[in-house]
Amino acid sequence: MTAGGDVVLRLTDVVKTFPGVRALDGVQLEVRAGEVHCLLGQNGAGKSTLIKVLAGVHRPDSGRVEWQGRPVRFANPQAAMRAGIATIYQELDLVDDLSVAENAFLGHEPRTAGFVRRSAMARRTRDILGRLGHAEIRPRGLVRSLPAAGKQVVSMARALSHQAKLIIMDEPSAVLAHDEVENLFRIIRELTAQGIAVIYISHRLEEIREIGDRVTVLKDGRTTAQNLPAQTTPTKELVSRMTGRSIEYVFPQREPNPHGEQLLEVSRLGRAGEFSDVSLTVARGEIVGIAGLVGAGRSELLETIFGARTADTGRVTMAGKPVRAGSVGAAVRAGMGMAPEERKSQALLLGEPIFRNITLATFGRLARVGFTDAGREVSAAERVAGSLELRPRGVHRPVRQLSGGNQQKVVVGRWLLGDTRLLLLDEPTRGVDVGARAELYQVIHDLAAQGVGVLLVSSEVPEVLGLADRVLVMREGRVVHQAPAGEIDEETVLDLVMSGSAKESATA
Predict the structure, then answer these.
(1) Which residues pair with 244 in a beta bridge?
(2) What are the C-alpha distances in Å from 83 to residues 7, 34, 101, 222, 263?
(3) Distance (Å, rounded) from C-alpha 125 to C-alpha 154?
(4) DSSP letter string over 223-264?
(5) Which of 38, 352, 356, 407 has a CA between 20 and 30 Å from the CA of residue 219?
(6) What is the pTM of this model?
(7) Mean pLDDT for the chain?
């Protein structure tokens, strides 16, 4: 593939800061008409923020964005769309109960005297679908009746209904089967042949080589490589551009601690469409880390072990005793506790005081004759808050007033009041600043030193390697490699999760 069109998009020294984090730190990017420009980077590298800047969701703090040769600052997504920049997110923003045509022209329906011209809208949608090679999709049919690949075509039709000159695709193949990916690539090639530029974001290096023209790599919000040829740049170079971080990962020194007897055993666990044939163990005092991309099945695995989802195959045992599938209560009684990925929506009662959030899992033990005993709750919560160095120390304030790091301490601390023997941690430091990370790392290590087993999921590869005794790598719903943390490095993990080219092994 070649791409010799004019530059349609240029970013120079673009900066975007949120409280506690510099998401974009001087990004450079250049995209030409008629090319597929691949954007590569680990989770947290700044790709999502960059997309939202281009889509008009965020406005950059500084730097320059030029669109078709002119500086722009989009006030909102509608302004970006009117300018000719369309974004297709991984989570498609379609309305299932509207028709294909209504979704394609949502917000800019053809009208006469205030009335929607439905026949004209259906006719124009049919023309666009034909242009995309999908004349079989009915403009008047409901979007909910379409498979994932069909919904993606509707999102592209929406982009073309706005006369888009640049289409941004965020992980477009994540929900597609192999033959559907081939069809996606066919559509992309037809779009670029018409002079439309595509920014293609994917973690799959084999896709980038097949569809891409040039590659830009982000790391910690910075551009570490620009305009690399997608098809000829060695895999090792691409991976090395993504590794090494500006953020300091301060891991506590861990003393040698012989692990106790086996605590958790997961045997050939599977759940249709999410993960399959997963087997793993966690011993007392052991930290086991799971690395992998978003969508690899890591979170779904933890939730199934904890009983929040029901497995289709396999079994879970704690200390040799089976744990009833699909029952959180059974998991808690067996000694499990879990800190989920979305702490605000899945774990915290944001309007309730800190002490109530800490005692939530052990409320029954702290009540007297079925009635709330606030004094016992507060005393227990204060002990936990002190041991975790929760700041500020008072436990009566609403938990929503705490920083992200201290909110996470509350979720972890909840399980310290019970008989928790195994702690499941899903992205424990997401949205947490560097200082609070170090404190959470110390909490996790202290728990392991006390004999608690820990099963940890993180998108931050250095975090998995720095915290865990043993590492499992997941790709597309399967464990493809296991190794002691000291015997695997960041580049090997990335190679396994992104390209699968490293030797796949399920041996410990």
Answers:
(1) none
(2) 15, 17, 22, 26, 58
(3) 9
(4) EEEEEEETTTS-HHHHHHHH-S-SS---PPP-------SEEE
(5) 407
(6) 0.63
(7) 86
